[in-house]
Amino acid sequence: MPLGKGELTTTATSLHILELIVDHGWVTLRGLVEETGLAKSTVHKHLSTLRANDYIVKEGERYTLGLYFLTVGKRAVELRDSYQLVEQKVRELGSRTDAEVDFTVEENGRLILMFEAAGATNESTFGTGTEFFLHNTAAGKAILATYADSKRDEILDTQGLPATTNKTIQSREALHAELEQIRENGYALNDGECVEGYRTVSSVIKRPNGSVLGAISAGGPAYRIDQSRLKNELADHVRSATAEVTESLVEAQSTL
């Protein structure tokens, strides 16, 4: 079982044992010792750890996969289907509006661009994997508006309110007031708060359980996107797109 660059021996061993259980269905401690060539105590420790985390179960002297994998597999399918639906909608919206459209998610208090699309006469300003703050982006504010006060404050305590332009929100009071407006409108706006001269409108996509999957945004340079178009045409398109994806996710969940 050769290790690849950057792999941990302990993790690789546990995964190898899991793969053997997948292959055989049911295994014994003795059988795993013979097949892996590892010490009995070492194999037992790996099995105990996997059992403690519900990845495997023990019946008598035999081990097999736990039903937790059913949850993991279902979640993997759900996420894959979710992102496929969103990516398709982002591309459709880019073509329909000839604006820059993207999908972002929040992770560890930062906004991460997952994928993007642009119309025929437009080019994407950012790139996949680009990270942003939440407080100075339309998508970030749209997501923050859905969070409980405790989660929002935890993010702000960690990330702060760094200014990237002279329009960036610099106080929590101002941010809280805008988040309230976002909840009323159903969308968030960004007019040069993150990048000078760049405007976007954003709305969130929700999972069937009500949590936020991410946000779709549409916009572009101010010389191409005026305020009227941003607040009317693009806002309507973004809200419709996120509502359609949210509804599709609910329908997909009901068939699982």
From TrEMBL:
IclR-ED domain: residues covered: 68-251
Keywords assigned: DNA-binding, Transcription, Transcription regulation
Superkingdom in the source lineage: Archaea
PROSITE patterns to which the protein is assigned, alphabetical: HTH_ICLR, ICLR_ED
Transmembrane feature ranges: none
UniProt cross-references to CDD domains, sorted A to Z: HTH_ARSR
GO molecular function annotations of the record: DNA binding; DNA-binding transcription factor activity
Transit peptide listed as a keyword: no
Gene3D superfamilies listed in its UniProt record: 3.30.450.40, Winged helix-like DNA-binding domain superfamily/Winged helix DNA-binding domain (1.10.10.10)
A Pfam family matched in the record: HTH_IclR
GO annotation (BP), single: negative regulation of DNA-templated transcription
Keyword Endoplasmic reticulum: no
Domain HTH iclR-type intervals: 8-67
Protein name as it appears in the record: IclR family transcriptional regulator
